[in-house]
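Thread title: Can someone regenerate the structure for this chain?

I was given the following input by a collaborator and told the matching structure tokens would be attached. They weren't. Posting the sequence so someone can regenerate them.
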Amino acid sequence: MNKDVIYIDAEDDITAIISKVKSSNERIVALVPPKQVGVLQSAVNLRILARVAKTVDKHLVLITSNSALLPLAAAAELPVAKNLQTKPVVPELPAAKPDDDDDIIDGANLPVADHAATVPESRRPAPAPAHRSPSLQSTAPPATRGTTPSPEAAQTAKKVPNFNDFRKKLFIGGGIGVLLLAIILWATFIAPHATIEIAAKTSDERLQTSVSLTTTGRTDIDSGTLRATVAEDKRDTSIDFTATGKREEGDKAGGTITLSTTTPDSVEVPVGTGFSNGNCTFTTTSAVRVPGVSPEWDGNGFGISPGKADVTVKATQIGEECNLSARSYESTIDKLKATGSAMHGGSKKQVTFVTQNDVQRAAEQLAEQKNESQKNILSRKLGQGVQPILESYQAIKTNPSPSPAVGQEAKDGKAKLSASVTYRMYGVQVSELDSFISSATLAKRSSESGQKVYQSGAKNVVFSDFSTDDNHSTVSLLAVAKVGPEIKDSDVKRRAMGKKYSDINNDLSAIHGVDSVDIRYSLPWISTVPNDAKKITVKFSISNNGQ
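Best answer:
Regenerated them for you:
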């Protein structure tokens, strides 16, 4: 998972840091404090940061090894890491030092008698009045200054009560007493709760009907309409195929031909005029005029010079076989001779290319692909509490495109057909389906009053014959509901309040449609159903015995 690293400046206050955390686009935010930690060296600020992060659903990690920050981070329950690569952990709080009882006075170490002897006379108790009764005077033997007390008396004098210890015991005893009282009150008045489970006598009611699915409207029993949701997932898909088209490709040989004539008149040679030698025919690439003969002085007298003209030619077929050496060619024009230079540039090879039939076959194979994992993906997109209509699963492919294109060469005969696919599937809320089936089933039993659908069978509904056209979709559903006499919760609670198991069982079993009764108490020592209806839960199950 990605994380955002925020480096805190020394001058940043807590408000600036909070703003940086909130503006982060990542859920995990690593805070790197400066060397002078400043505003973060505050337990209150760290707790505020932790609270803000929890509010905006972000996980804060403090990147530091500062020993002063570790206990503060532990108190705020902030994870700490030494660096950006180490695993963050929440530091442990330092252990509290045990109480060494230095502040508790040990009365055994106080020589009470000795200290009393050193008290100034002005602060000593006044002597007893002379009119004190003889009996009181006889109970207190006279004590003279400097009299050494007996060991027993000295030991008694040293025993001073430890009020701290007494206070602790008092608090503990009081706390235990309050806790016991709370437990008694809870167990007597709050905890008692009873659950009454009634097995109802039911019969199967088969419902098979065709419904319309709407994504914008609401469920309507009368019109047979179910509100549905649609999940879509767009992906690119492709399939490899083999090209089957075969043809020869290459270049045509070409060169120059010299044309000559012995006629007095010029000869017009149009473009495309052919000249042949063996299996190769060359045609002119441009029109040319060959002049007629002309007189020529040879030194001894006048002779006749033939008319000549050069023209470029190209072979009518591809291949190396027309790469000919210089030679003469047969002319299709009378009284015209043709002599060609060496012809070159001819080549030929066999290539494989993509045909339209290849693309059609690949498109059919692409359409037949079954991507079952997409059904699971769409089911998760529909969400919890939605019953997917698997029969509505569609893979809509658009714009299939071959590569290479039709007519183009396929290297090694390999080609690919790619398309954009939209996967689509409908789903219906189980609550909507439950309500629809229950209402439709009771409408089917309209002649019987006092009926109740105890189990609609929505979770086991069977869909079939899905069709869609112009945003109008229909599907057939088959459900088997459990129907029986209506037993009201309020009636059951009223009959059970304040009664014991046997009385309740006998009473409720007499209700029409009740097959058996079971009662469970929240505490083992409870044997009576509470008198409060709010503390009674009524559950219905389906009897296996039927009606």
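The two ends are 58 Å apart (CA to CA).
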